[in-house]
Design brief:
265 residues, Jelly Rolls, 2 domains, five-stranded antiparallel sheet, 10% helix, eight-stranded antiparallel sheet, single chain, mainly beta
């Protein structure tokens, strides 16, 4: 584990398929078990994992430190007002809010952020359905006919069950169809995956579950060569420096939460 913030959780929760996982690393010393706070921690964690208690385990909030560092929420777990359909004024019916997540539940098309961004750090969690495919885009220009005509994509995929998973350049975390991830970092279907996408001028980094899996420079000869040899060659691909973010409707169920962005100088 190589977290960029140097922080490690001693207790955590996570949905898993139709179930729940509660983990705690505390309790090594006998005296800890005499502490009412710790006993409550264990009992309530077990109750939540067993479905006997409800709690917002997905956060969708900013910490005091994040607020001080200039982060803002693009989804609060209840309202999707920061998003709309591509070339639309409202969120398509195929996208809904469920259990603190923004979920593609039916046909609706790609959705884009209402605001545009140029230099930024984006954090977002995703959970894909079995055999599913989706993506996270940046630099979306709505003068184009489709999101993928202008915007580079960080691939979201069930590598084990989708055909694209057999090709590294189209596997989870890739710079879709152009660059393969340096290693496989995606978690199995049913688990949440944490993305960190950094765009600073022409430099782009894809981080997946704490691993930097892709790094590239927009506009360089190497980049131009990759685009020229791809299906993106006829389009102004990767040329929109200030544009919308987008979440892809690829026909499969996909969920997003903890969508946070921080502008970079």
């Amino acid at each position: 584990m190589h977290r960029d913030d140097g922080d490690f959780a001693v207790a955590w929760t996570r949905p898993y398929g139709r179930g729940r996982v509660f983990y705690t690393a505390l309790g090594h010393e006998p005296a800890v078990w005499q502490d009412d706070r710790f006993r409550t921690h264990v009992v309530e964690g077990i109750r939540w994992a067993a479905g006997l208690a409800e709690a917002d385990a997905s956060s969708n909030r900013l910490t005091d430190r994040e607020q001080a560092d200039g982060w803002r929420l693009l989804f609060d777990g209840a309202s999707a007002e920061s998003w709309r359909g591509f070339k639309q004024d409202r969120l398509p019916d195929g996208w809904t809010v469920e259990d603190g997540a923004l979920v593609r539940t039916g046909a609706g098309g790609d959705i884009v952020s209402r605001d545009q961004f140029e230099n930024f750090e984006l954090r977002i969690d995703w959970q894909i359905g079995p055999g599913g495919n989706s993506g996270i885009f940046f630099g979306v220009g709505e003068e184009a006919e489709a999101v993928w005509h202008t915007a580079p994509e960080m691939q979201i995929l069930d590598d084990a069950a989708h055909a694209d998973g057999r090709t590294p350049e189209t596997s989870a975390g890739s710079n879709y169809a152009l660059q393969a991830p340096t290693r496989t970092a995606a978690r199995p279907v049913g688990e949440w995956n944490a993305v960190r996408l950094v765009v600073r001028d022409s430099h782009v980094e894809h981080w997946l579950n704490g691993v930097r899996v892709v790094e590239y420079e927009l506009g360089t000869p190497e980049w131009q060569g990759l685009v020229a040899d791809s299906k993106f060659a006829p389009f102004p691909y990767g040329q929109v420096r200030r544009g919308h973010l987008a979440l892809q409707d690829h026909g499969d169920r996909v969920a997003f939460r903890n969508i946070k962005i921080r502008p970079l100088e």
